[in-house]
Automatic annotation (TrEMBL):
Source taxonomy: Bacteria, Bacillati, Actinomycetota, Actinomycetes, Bifidobacteriales
Name of the gene: der
Organism of provenance: Bifidobacterium pullorum subsp. gallinarum
Location(s) in or outside the cell: Cytoplasm
Record-listed ATP binding positions: G8, P9, A10, G11, V12, G13, K14, S15, S16
Subunit structure: Associates with the 50S ribosomal subunit.
Segments traversing the membrane: none
Function: GTPase that plays an essential role in the late steps of ribosome biogenesis.
Name the record gives this protein: Multifunctional fusion protein
Protein family according to the UniProt entry: Belongs to the TRAFAC class TrmE-Era-EngA-EngB-Septin-like GTPase superfamily. EngA (Der) GTPase family.
Whole-protein residues included: 1 to 230 of 709
Amino acid sequence: MIRVAIDGPAGVGKSSTSKALARHFGFAYLDTGAMYRACAWWCMKQGIDLDAEQVDEQLVTETVGEFFTEGHFDISVDPADPKVLADGEDISDAIRASEVSSHVSKVSNIIPVRHVLIAAQRAYIAREAAEDSFSGGAGIVAEGRDITTVVAPDAEVRVLLTAREEVRQARRTGQAVKGVGGEDVAARDRADSKVTSFLEAADGVITVDNSDMDFDETLAVLVRMVEDAI
Ligand code: C5P
């Protein structure tokens, strides 16, 4: 059983490298950021004003609770086809829109909302760490902001993937050219670091700074770390 926990700031390439890492080993892949994004998307769809000076935290918490407990939310942890569904609709692209990126911290900063998501994430990790779902043996790569510290601090492999701010900003701006939400990564990190700690590695967490690495080099470093843990 191998649990790989990867945290890091916006624009570091966590999702693409984590997904490739999971595929390499035939492990499940859990994008916890996608879960927070889906919650923000759902709240906006229900007409909740996330631009309000005082966001109605109780309403957001209730709405997110219903999203999960009433079965509207679903996520595929297949690394070859990860997707997020709301009432069966594939919202994987919709949750990457800049409108969602710019509002997601308003939802993820609400502590009771985090409790709902952390419990759900722990359940996915426990299930996939016990089952051989994708032919590589029981294992999962979970990535986000608080996986190494809160969701799965006992994971076999714990990594803080990071890069210099200007490098991350350039990567996001490059993605924007292809139509995938360009944004101010530093602003989102500031908002997110009020409730999660992903700017510095916690005890026992290995920092991988990929500022001067390309995708394949980053993946190779992570593959070696997982091989060492197997
Ligand atoms: O990783 P991604 O950029 O998709 O995450 C979207 C947002 O979800 C983050 O900006 C943060 O607000 C929230 N998040 C979180 N905790 C996690 C993962 C993501 O608060 N473990």
